[in-house]
Amino acid sequence: MGVIVIKYLKIIKTVLVLVIVAACSCLFSKSVRGGQISWKDISVIRHACGGIDGMAYTNSKEALEQSILSGCGAVEIDFRFSSDGVLVCAHDWDDIGLKKAPKAKAFKNHKINGIYTTMTAETALKKLAGTKIFLIVDTKEKDTASVYKEIDRILSSIKGGTKYKKKVVPQIYSQDEYDILNEIYSYKRWILTLYKLKPGSAAEYKELAEFCKEKGIRTVTIPKNKVTAKRVSYFTDKGIRVATHTVNGEEEWSRLEGLGVAVFYTDFGRNATD
After folding, report:
1. What pTM, to 2 d.p., does this model score?
2. Is residue 273 part of a domain?
3. For residue 235, how many C-alpha atoms fall within 13 Å in the half-sphere facing its CB?
4. Nearest 5°: phi and psi at 154?
5. Crossing angle of the two packed helices 2-28 and 61-70, in degrees rounded to 10
6. How far does CA 104 lie from the centroid of its chain?
7. What is the pLDDT of residues 115-164, one digit of tens each?
8. How far is it, in rounded angstroms, from Cα 59 to Cα 150?
9. Rounded CA gap, 141 and 274, in Å?
10. 26 and 53 belong to one structural domain
11. Buried b vs exposed e over 49-61: b needs ≥16 C-beta within 10 Å?
12. How many domains is the chain built from?
């Protein structure tokens, strides 16, 4: 009798798992694969693949898979080169328990916090290439162009990669990077992020807004501690949406939304709690 009960419990558990997966798949299909999300509709960007189990900045396989299953429309991934020249997914090496850039083999074998799986750029791009999720590219490499060239090379070599190139969104830190990266691929969408430029005066903000309008850059990221309604208006008056980072929790989200911010980089979402 006990054996029969155990068998039934296993069957019930299997059915529940299948139902959950099916529900996630339906959500994913409707919001992403169905093609109903356009860039202008994106209001949330999963930061560093999205937080997982209370951890941020993992850029891990598990975090990316969780974000994909959630039906998100956009994910940001940080890219770095290993010491032997392989493009991998990482923000700062010490964020994931490494002292310096490792060789690719050591990186692949490393477990983030002893649990989560590291990814090469190729692994991440293969997971994304079959979706319609926008990929926001971030990197701390000094040679930014080399990162984008490698992403372009990988996408040219994998199934669905050439088509997916249209979903790649460069996140640039200066006006010069626009021309450099535009020579690699004719990207349709861009984000100019301002934390390295450090504009201060109204004239500097207006100049950046004019640059974005001229180049067709429709999203600008202002650090959350620099957001004011006036600064936001310099961009929104020209049809440019303002994003900010990194925001977790309703109180801060609502405050920034009230100042005109339209796009939020987040680890854990609007309903996150401390």
Report:
1. 0.87
2. no
3. 29
4. -65, -45
5. 70
6. 22
7. 999 999 999 999 999 999 999 999 999 999 999 999 999 999 999 999 99
8. 18
9. 32
10. no
11. bbbbeebbbbbbb
12. 2
